[in-house]
Each structure stands twice: as C-alpha cells, then as structure tokens.
Design goal:
The structure is a homotrimer of 296-residue chains. With 296 residues, chain A is mainly alpha-helical. Chain A has a single domain, classed as NCX, central ion-binding region (A middle domain of Talin 1, Up-down Bundle). Helices cover 74% and strands 1% of the residues of chain A. Chain A has 10 helices and 2 strands; from the N terminus they run αβαααααααβαα. The longest helix of chain A has 38 residues. The radius of gyration of chain A is 19 Å and the shape is globular. The C terminus of chain A is likely disordered. Chains A, B, C: Belongs to the Ca(2+):cation antiporter (CaCA) (TC 2.A.19) family. Cation/proton exchanger (CAX) subfamily. Chains A, B, C: Pfam families: Na_Ca_ex (PF01699).
C-alpha cells in the first residue's frame, strides 16, 4: 500500500465530512427554506449541539497530531504521531459507541440520526422495539458504508491519479470534492426531500449524523484497520485540511446553535462549500508527503 | 501601486473590522450597561447570529489563502492564492447581496443594520416603503464608504510611512489601530447614543453591521477593483492578522449568542481591543513582504 | 532561575486549566448525569457564557504572543513578546478584578464561583454581608493558591526532571497532566459531590471558576511576579500548548452553551481529556527552548 493511497483515503473521508456538512445540509436548508419561506423551520437543538460537540472532538483528534508534526515537537519524529493517532482512534470509537448507547437509552429519541429509512420512528411505530432494530440496522449500515468507502478508495486510487494527470486537476480536488459529491448523492437526495417535507430533524440526522459517523467512526476505524494490516495511516491530515475541517465545523455549529433554519443559512453553507472547493482546487500536497515511500 | 500600499489597504480594512467589533461594540455595551444597570439589555438574537455567521464566512475566506501560503501547499506558489482570492471575493459579494435581499424580504425587519439614520424604521414609518428606501440609501452608502476608504488609503499611505518613521510606531499599528479609530468616529458616537437610549439593535446594526459589510463587501470589492486595475491585492492578510480577526470574531460571536448585554461584556470587549492593539504595536511585516517590489 | 523552570510553571498552570475544564467538569457532569439519569440537569447559562468569554479572552492573550513568535513578525525578536505579555497580563488582571466586581454587584448572585465552602450563599445567609466576605476570602484564597503553585513548582522542578529521566516520561506530561491531577484532587472531589447533590452551579463554579481564575489571574500574576523579580516569564506558551487550550475552551464553551448537562456530555469531556493527555505524552519542547540559557 503506497503512501499516496493513504492520502486518498484520508482525503475522501475528509471530503465526505465537508460535503455532508456544507453541501448536503446547505441544500437541505435552502430547499426547505424556499418551500416553507413563510415560516422559520425548527429542529431539535439539543441533538444538534451534541453532534457539534462530537464533531469538535473529532477536530481535536485530528488537530493535535497535525500541530505536533508541523511544530516538530514530537518525541520521536514521525513515529509518535502514529502512536497518538492509534490511541486517539480507540478513544473516538469508544466515544462513538457511547454516543449510540446514549441515543438508544434516551427516551425522547426524536430522530434516528443515521437511519435514512426510519421516517416512521418519530411516533407511529411501537416505541419499545422499533428504535433498537433501526439502531442495529444502522450499525450494520455503518460497517457496510465504511467497507464501501475503503473498497472504493482502494479501487479508485489509480483512476484518480490517471484522471488528475489527464484533466490537469489536483488529486486533492478529485478526492476531497468530486468523489464525495458522487458518493453522497443518495444522502443528498434524502436530506433535501425530508427538508421539503418539513422533517428537518431527519435531514439533519442524515447530513450531520453522517458527518459525525464518518469523523468519529469511519476515520478511526480506517486507522485501526490500517494498524491491523500494518499500514501507517494516522490522524495527521496536514494543517490545511485540518484547518478546513475546523472552520467548517465552527461555521456549521454556529448555524445550528439556534435550532432554526431558513433559506439564507442554506445559501451561506453552499457559498462556504464553494470557497472550500476552490481552496482545494489550488491545493497540492507538499513534495515531502507526495514523494516519500511510506512512513513506517 | 506599490506592494506596501496593498498592505495598508488590507490593514486599514482589517483594523476597521476589529475596531467596529471590539471598540465600538464594547463602548456601546459598556455605556448602555452603565446607564441601564438595573436590567439586562436585550437585542435581536437571530439577527446577531446571522451576522456572526457572515463574519465567520469572511474569516474562512481570509484563512484559506493565508494557510495555503504559509504551509507552501499552493499549486503555483504566489499565483494560486491570487486566483483563489478573486474567486472567493466574487462568492463573498454574491453572499452579501443575498444577505441584503434576505433582509429586504424578511417581514420582521427589526432594524436596518447598515443605516444609521434609520431610527424611525422600527415602527413609526409606513411599513411598505420606508425599509426599501433605507436599503437603497444604505447600498449607495456602501459604495460611498468603500470609495472613501480606498481614497483615504491611497492618499494616506505616504503620510503613514512618514509618521511611522517620525514617531517610531510600526506602520501596522497606525493602519490597523489609529486610522480606524478616527475613521469610525461617527459610527462610534452613533452606536453609543443608541445604546444609551436602549435601542441596542441599532447599535448592533451599526457596529456588527459595519463589520459584516466591510468584511463581506469592502474587502472583496477592493480585491475585485484591484483585479480590474491590475493590482495583485489578495485575501491573504498573513497568519497573524487572520488569527487576530478569527479570535475577535469568536469572542464577539460568543458574547452575542445569548442576546443580552451588560456593562461587563462591554468592558471585556474593550479589554480585548487593548490586547489586540498592543499586539499590533509589536508587530511588523516580515522582511519578505515589506521588501518585495510587487507580487505580479 | 533557569528557563526550564519557567516552562514548568507555565505548563503546570496550563495543565491545571485543562484538568479543571475537562477532567473535573467531565467527572462532575458524568457522575451527576448517572445519579440523576431520569432528568436533564440544568445550570445558570448566563454565568457559564460569561466564564466562556473570559476563557476565550485568556486564550487571546496567550495566542497572540505565540503566533507573533512563530511567524517571526515581532518588532524586536524575543523582546517584544515579553513586553506584550506583561501589558496583556496587566489587562487580564484588571479584567479579572472587573469580573469580581461585576459578580459582587449583580444581585442575582446565584453562586460564588471561586468559593467552594460557600454553599449557603445561594439564599440562606444575609444578602448584604455574606457574599462580600466570601469574596474577600476568595481573593485571599487566590493569593494562597498562586503562592502555593509557585512554591510547588519551584520545589518540584528538580523532582520532575529526575522523575522524567527515571520513568522515561516527558517532562511536559508530568507537569501538564500528572501534577494537576494531584493538585486538583480537592476541587475534583468537591465538584463531583455537588453534582451528585444536583447543585451543578457550584460544581461549575469550582471547575470553570477555577479555570477562569487560573487563566485570568494565576497566569498573569506569575508574569507580573516574574517581571518584578526579573525573570522573563511571558505568555508565549508555544503553539502546541496554546492550540490545546484553544480547542479545550471551544469544546467546553459549546458543551456549556445550552445550560444543561447529562452523563454523555461528561463522558465526552473525559474522552477529550484522554486525547489531550496522550498528546502531551508524545510532546517535547523543541531543542531551541530546552537548551537556551534564559531569554533575557
């Protein structure tokens, strides 16, 4: 497994988070706001704050290895950040498991955050069985999604490099922006549909729930899988990528803190996504990362 | 047009945002809080959150070029950040136009955020005409203000350099701190007056509205004007300036999120401004920026 | 006084803030949430927001010298950041004094944020005298605590270096993580006890109040004391330490903004503390800081 491939996995996971938080949520807010322009759409604020908190925790997990690396204050240069990443990944997986458990237990389970099919869970089903089933379904779905992302990335890495040369587009732009737009098409359609039906909590569950899931489950899971297989994937996504994620999480957290949405908030998220996309269009990995033969 | 002049334009725009957000708003909160010390003053929270969101988006627009440049991960060193800045500026102008449109359309137009003369708009005028007129007035006012800033900067750049040598004060301090204090005197007086009259929404409109306007209209407008005239002005304000703006926006966003103010919040903003001012007093541009003959 | 000793003082102060905000508050939220799992615990939101604001201001005071230093944009390399730190420290002390005055004056003094023994202040005592006494007590307590920290640090610096060599643990980990856990044991026990008794405001007063006090009083006080004694202690805690504090303050501010707590929020803070601790375990000061003989 080449070093370049680890970067593609990292970048497509990052891109998936960015696209869910800005593009999918932005489109949902915008289309919902246009259809229901006579009123403010509301959603479950406390759930949104909890998700913002998890996303900030994920940013913390990614930020420290990147800062340690870029300030050259690691104990053993290059190796310490890998050990730290693996430890942090375990913590993040446990935190995500605790989050699922917490949602399972909390009676006022207003929406099933990861289950797109669970529309009926907000009332019409038996309260005792239905949510648990949807939880297990969703856990399985997590594994399937992650496996799919891993597989896709493995398969696509050569295609991406070819396309990058042919179309003269940086690899970063293809893996961070183009891939996730295609990959998130289903979630995208779902989130918009539910927003138009004024079921904004489900839209949020799809968009922000997916982001939380990828950042607190997908990324650490890939690090652990890489550990088992002997690949040096770590949480150091480099400073620029981490800064992008950080700003995105902050903007979205501020947009969500009120518990209301309108079409302008949606538009702002879309404009932010354009700025993010443009930034990745002029971004390349520094030579030191591209050329090195593998970090082990 | 020398490179030093672009820096003065950048820094006086930045200083104007900082002074509006910390000094003007701080004075307004403080004087309002002292006069009305028996109660908590309230303001329109959702409008404040919207403005915080726009300011965070502006920080995003400034942060990415600065991070790209300082991590040396641009596609074409020096040129890519200019292209990105011009693209982001267009996005920011469109976003600001959308914001004005959104405010125009929203019926519950509790205050006219950019129009200092529009005191009566909160009730006593005809609802159908008055706000639109004040909007158009304010749009014209935007152009006048921006032209004035541009003109002032062009005229003053030599004076600043002379003063800097004579008084032994860094250029950064003059353009970021001293110039905007003079330039914002009118807004300053207005914001304090309205806060004392317990019309905090108008104070906020003046202070935060001006900051939003400069960051989402003034700065991108200058970039576009520079593009038309062939000057390489970009959104890369350097890491330190961007970090200052980022922290300021965060502090103000946290102060505004509750929708209430008191004199201590005002004091805190003033203290923050003193720390910011002191930081710029010991800040100089690195040699590489000062000496280069122009970035084209 | 060796340069290494200043670092130990800086790091143990930083560690004390981190441990209060994440470990102590996390344990309080968690144990309170487990015992009162049938309901959401609430606390005084506006007080929490005020403390978040003060903490963000402290981050601002620490961030600017660190960024100035690391971007090499100081006026006089090495000296300017010391002057800035001393100025900022004075501002922070005045701001903290203003905060105490504000709390003293505000009638709805729901809790005495620094006084752990002041349980009765929330109603049962005479309103006119009791809070003032507890304030003066607390101010004395501030001095005692700071003196104790200074003394402890002076005494322990050799012990730490010895332990670091013997146990093969980085000095940073001992001073940032291990020392404060022992040092905060009393606050820790108090915060958990009050959370279990559903007096979450007192828990917050202990945990967040202590953090505010150390960051806005302890740290600047040490800088001023160092100034008087001729030691070059400044607010430049280096980029990694400042980034850690910044992320921690952000995460805690987002957790507090709703004014409610549950066991999952407590767990998240604990997990964040583990990630922070692990990061400091692989962190060493760069050679340039460790070896230099003193910054004067």
């Amino acid at each position: 497994m080449r070093s370049g491939m680890i970067r593609v996995v990292q970048q497509s996971l990052l891109g998936s988070i960015l696209s869910n938080m800005l593009l999918v949520l932005g489109c949902a807010f915008f289309s919902g706001g246009i259809v229901h322009s006579n009123k403010e759409q509301v959603f479950n604020k406390s759930n949104a704050v909890m998700n913002s908190g998890l996303l900030l925790m994920a940013v913390m997990g990614l930020l420290f290895p990147a800062v340690l690396h870029s300030t050259h204050t690691e104990l053993h240069f290059g190796k310490s950040e890998l050990a730290l990443s693996r430890f942090s990944s375990c913590i993040m997986l446990v935190a995500y498991a605790a989050y699922l458990f917490f949602q399972l237990k909390s009676e006022k389970n207003l929406y099933a955050p990861i289950n797109e099919e669970g529309i009926q869970t907000d009332g019409s089903l038996d309260d005792d069985e239905a949510p648990e089933v949807s939880k297990w379904e969703s856990i399985i779905w997590l594994f399937v999604l992650t496996a799919w992302i891993s597989f896709l990335s493995e398969y696509l890495v050569n295609a991406i490099e070819g396309a990058s040369v042919t179309l003269n587009i940086p690899i970063a732009f293809i893996s961070v922006i183009l891939l996730p737009i295609v990959g998130n098409a289903a979630e995208h359609a779902g989130a918009i549909m539910f927003a138009i039906k004024d079921k904004l909590d489900i839209s949020l569950g799809v968009a922000i729930g997916s982001s939380t899931q990828i950042s607190m489950f997908g990324i650490p899971f890939c690090v652990i899988v890489g550990w088992v297989w002997g690949h040096p994937m770590d949480l150091n996504f480099q400073i620029f990528e981490t800064a992008t994620l950080f700003m995105t999480v902050l903007v979205v957290a501020f947009m969500l803190q009120e518990g209301t949405s309108n079409y302008f908030k949606g538009l702002m998220l879309l404009f932010c996504y354009m700025i993010v996309a443009a930034s990745f269009f002029v971004h390349i990995d520094p030579k030191s990362i591209q050329d090195k033969p593998g970090k082990t």
